[in-house]
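Supplementary Methods, section 5.1.

A reviewer requested that the exact input to the structure prediction be made available. We therefore reproduce it here, unchanged from the version used in the analyses.
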Amino acid sequence: MLQVKHLTITHTKDLRVLIQDFSFVLHPGDKAVVIGEEGNGKSTLLKWLYDPGLIDGYCEWSGEAAGDPGPMGYLAQDLTEAEKAKSVYDFCAGSPVFFDLTPKELDRIARQLRFPAEEFYAGRPVGTLSGGEQIKLQLARLLFARPSVLLLDEPSSDVDLETLRWMEGFLNSFAGICLYISHDETLIENTANMVLHVEHPREGKPPRCTAHRLSYRDYVQRRDAGISFQTQQARKEKEEYDKKMERYRRIQQSVEYAQRTITRQNPSGGRLLKKKMHAVMSMGRRFEREAEDMTKLPEVEMAMFLSFPEHVRLPAGKTVLDLTLPELRAGERLLSQNIRLRVYGGEKVGIIGPNGTGKTTLLRLIAAELLQRRDLRAAYMSQDYAETLPLDRTPIQYLAPGGDTASETRARTYLGSLRYARQEMVHPIAELSGGQKAKLLLTRMALDGVNVLLLDEPTRNFSPISGPRVRQALADYQGTIISVSHDRKYLAEVCTKLYRLTADGLLPIDTASLY
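The structure derived from this sequence is encoded token-by-token as follows.
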């Protein structure tokens, strides 16, 4: 059992409380997902559970972790450059128990992960492995120590559909406690039996942290139903209250008018009006007490708001891309051949395929061609946001490069709708989470009025709360989208055409093949 008691974590730089008075209990077999908007402290929570020293440099905390959960294994969101430079063998040897394992035990772990056992002794750098292979290698090093608790920060990031399906089975079969963060809603729906929600309802208000022993689908349905009911109840009570207050004000004004106009020759009438005014004031105080007991509008963290201008569109018959590529190569390596892709105005194309097949390479080639076209207004979103974002600037400076008051005011309005706290608006972009950086890129594209979006894993860093809003905005977009993605909900809800990149080119597929 793993028990957390009254945990509070505060960011030391801006004194922002990330997590407040959070308590929960996890038992063996629990698959608990941590959800919340970007920058809410989800990764910080996992680091604290594994080793509080990991957050000492930027956070202060109080509370305790109790119980006797057994050995923990922690998978960080990203490998360090030093880890990527190591050979696979040296990476595995970094586990203190690696050399204590028998070949039979290593083979059992390899089969569990569907990872070749001989690869544990490979001399190639870890950074040359595909995203899915890197995740499996990291999980293998965790499993060497036979952990009872797995703390996984974005294990579904940068992996292909086949690996995502495998990971669902791996998580469901793990006998111990698994606490993880993921932005892949399908994986969450298929694995989580418990939801930990870290919410920051409004700036200046304390965060709300809750634990729910429900599947993700059930939690979302109950939460939405509860919000809807409370909102309707609050509005109904407010409407009835406003009607009573309107009647009360008319009575009060009538008595006040009578008091002003009554003559001194009518003392009995004056006494009567005075009693009547006392009754009116008493009524007002009663209404004030009623207002305090009225149902309040729910203070929940709402998803970000994102939209593209309605006037940005392309004619359906316009040829956006007519690509014929005999060979697709990465250096000397042949990735694919005989690639043919034709895209028209308004179409939304999704390209899938296993890690390492060249999807990003292909999208870069397409971007290089379309970004030069004068009859189009194209924008490219790379997986590596540093390629297009000025990391030393602030979000306000990025969205309002002119620096004038009107532009900065507009930028603050947009950032507020994207769920940025005021402090985050003036932090360097380098300090922001991946989701916050992705929000900036998409917002800049909307402000610039681009009519062709070239997106490499556009939804990979959005929370399950904001993911549906992002998908809806892209589905409503009237321009053309050419994208690479492993997000099954994005591919099904946004894309009008799907292709699988193979060694023999692009093959059309249907949505059913995603699941």
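The chain has a mean pLDDT of 89. These observations are discussed further in the main text.
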